[in-house]
């Protein structure tokens, strides 16, 4: 495993685009801390976002993992370009000539995906812990370390998403087209979701019926791992109650969603290996 990882990180270290994109990605993760600096002080109106509870434990684990997941497209570019470069620079063929099997080649890419996801998760954990210790109203250890399942969901989400990108990179061989294919797939899932809502428009439980179908699609399953955290805020719930809306939403991390994403991850890695094994290089 270490030998395969060393090969991959040697390639990434000498790829300027990958280095730049990785720096941008982790820079954006760090920028979550800048949210604490958002203040409005206009006459009698004083608003400090950090004081609204977004950095309170354990809510911060939910909020920060949701926001951090938005930036995953930057690392996706690293993953697909990593694969595209193998074809452009003929390093894939050279690795195989040098004795690396196709299975080891796919494993080296998958290990890299897992390491990227793990580093991202640890990075978000440290950033969130520091922000929470500074701004949270609750500092009891039992509260600080509750809801850490959002970090696990974040890790699984990244591994699944990057594995999808790896498969598209192998399938299409061009990074720009692979990213475009991911976007097309996302649009396709959105169109299907809209069509299902239209189909079940007369059903009283149409939301549940649509979600029961859509949850098995890869990008929707990944999105379901960490649901939006904004309506969970006390201030948002207070406003909703004042206008007669009662927010009753399950924000927990579902084991079923975790399992679906893990299955898709296994499918993408298997298809990547099957495609590479079949293809004449």
Sheet with the most strands: spatial strand order? 1-2
Give the H and E element order.
HHEEHHHHHHHHHHH
Largest sheet: 2 strands, antiparallel
Q: Which whole number gives the mean pLDDT?
A: 85
How far do the termini sit from each other? 24 Å
Helix content: over 70%
Quote the beta fraction.
under 5%
Overall number of strands = 2
Number of helices: 13
Count of all domains: 1
Global shape: globular
C-alpha Rg (nearest Å): 21 Å
Counting helices, strands and paired strands, the structural category is mainly alpha
Q: Which spans of ≥5 residues are poorly predicted at pLDDT below 50? A: none
Polypeptide structure, described:
The protein is an all-alpha fold. The protein has one domain. Helix content is 71%, strand content 3%. The chain is built from 13 helices and two strands. It has helices at 2-13, 16-30, 59-70, 72-88, 91-97, 102-135, 141-144, 149-172, 175-199, 206-214, 218-225, 234-242, 255-278; strands at 39-42, 45-48. A two-stranded antiparallel ribbon has the order 1-2. The radius of gyration is 21 Å and the shape is globular.
Defining key terms:
281 residues, mainly alpha, two-stranded antiparallel sheet, 13 helices, 2 strands, 71% helix, 3% strand, globular
Task: Give a quick rundown of the structure.
This protein has 281 residues and is mostly helical. Helices cover 71% and strands 3% of the residues.
